[in-house]
Amino acid sequence: MSRDNDVHAGVIMMAFVMGAIAGAAAALLTAPSSGPDTRRVLNEKAHEGRERAGDAARKSSDFVKRQRDQLSTAIDRGREAYQRARESDPVDAEDEG
Fold it and tell me: pLDDT, tens digit, for every residue of 10-42?
């Protein structure tokens, strides 16, 4: 359940960032400045946006990897605990014998 919330939070954050970029682009396009100045600013903002998107993608990839590793570790520990419990359960030993 928590994983679903994390995914939804990531989608919402990405939508917010994309909206901010679109809003900034619209503001620059309607601003009273010369064409070359506007193109330069748009190029700079686009470059910054690509860098931020790359950073966000790397962070989300790292987050998913950490969560996967933690889940794998938890499953392994659960299996080990189950095996120890089965081996030490006297009821199971009597049923098998």
Answer: 778 888 888 888 888 787 777 777 778 878 887
Tell me the backbone φ, ψ of residue 27, rounded to 5 degrees: -65, -40
What does the DSSP assignment read for 5-22?
A: HHHHHHHHHHHHHHHHHH
Neighbours of 14 (CB within 10 A): 14
Q: How far apart are the first and last CA of the chain?
A: 42
7: nearest Cα among 58, 66, 49, 63: 63
Rounded distance, CA 25 to CA 35, Å?
Answer: 14
Q: By residue range, what is the domain housing residue 35? A: 2-89
Q: Would you say residue 95 lies in a domain?
A: no
pTM: 0.45
- Position 92 scores a pLDDT of 53
Report if residue 63 sits inside a domain: yes
Sequential DSSP letters for 45-67: HHHHHHHHHHHHHHHHHHHHHHH
